[in-house]
């Protein structure tokens, strides 16, 4: 079973996911990832509120998408120096922030925690590569003691780099949140082919579409599902053949009425694919 879900964010000063839960019910969606970038939201009181509201609305929370503080530029120029825990200047603080997210997830009862690790060096001899591995091993060891998995959000790394890093860290509780569009937007891989490399580690997804970069400094452009380069039929088919039973979590990184329309469209698009493949 691949439940259709959606990624939802709390952008307010005070944590309030209830509005998003209501919107999910109206769209006929009952699975989600929570996205939190405000560290002050990680309180036990908020966790208890989120857990209660999710139960009231019949929502299953598949993962916490845990953010971090400091500069972040989603491009090829400043991105390597600002994103995730790869930059040494922000690594220690962001690891501690991810552990706060892990604690919050444990209070809510969420097993999977996702983030962008950053532009992990493809060169294993790069001095920064070993530092990232050590930091991830520390983070994942603590998360393992909490019964949790750490999931890489695909994007800045090639599939082979992700595979290598999971093997190097070796804690046994690492997986992939495969964002279909990000692999294309960053020019790193075709998501269907990427499953040959990292498919066995996929624990959640971002169902998103987009175009390859046409400029050396900027990412490709996100599109509505079906309007970009992702072959969703064969992606879902291959996931199913690999035995994946997790959610197909829709992500549309725009806001307002257009976002709602595109999520509803994506839900119908995925339901059609599931029906053709005879997937519940």
Question: Tags for this entry?
Answer:
single chain; 280 residues; globular
Describe what you observe in this structure:
The protein has helices at 18-27, 44-57, 79-82, 88-108, 127-145, 159-169, 180-185, 191-198, 232-241, 256-276; strands at residues 4-9, 31-36, 60-66, 112-115, 149-153, 174-179, 202-206, 209-210, 222-223, 248-250. The protein has 280 residues and is an alpha/beta fold. The strands form two sheets. Strands 7-6-5-4-3-2-1-10 form an eight-stranded parallel beta sheet. It is globular.
Layout: helices, strands, pairs:
Blueprint: E1 4-9, H1 18-27, E2 31-36, H2 44-57, E3 60-66, H3 79-82, H4 88-108, E4 112-115, H5 127-145, E5 149-153, H6 159-169, E6 174-179, H7 180-185, H8 191-198, E7 202-206, E8 209-210, E9 222-223, H9 232-241, E10 248-250, H10 256-276
Parallel strand pairs: 1-2, 1-10, 2-3, 3-4, 4-5, 5-6, 6-7
Antiparallel strand pairs: 8-9
Helix pairs in contact: 1-2, 2-4, 4-5, 6-8
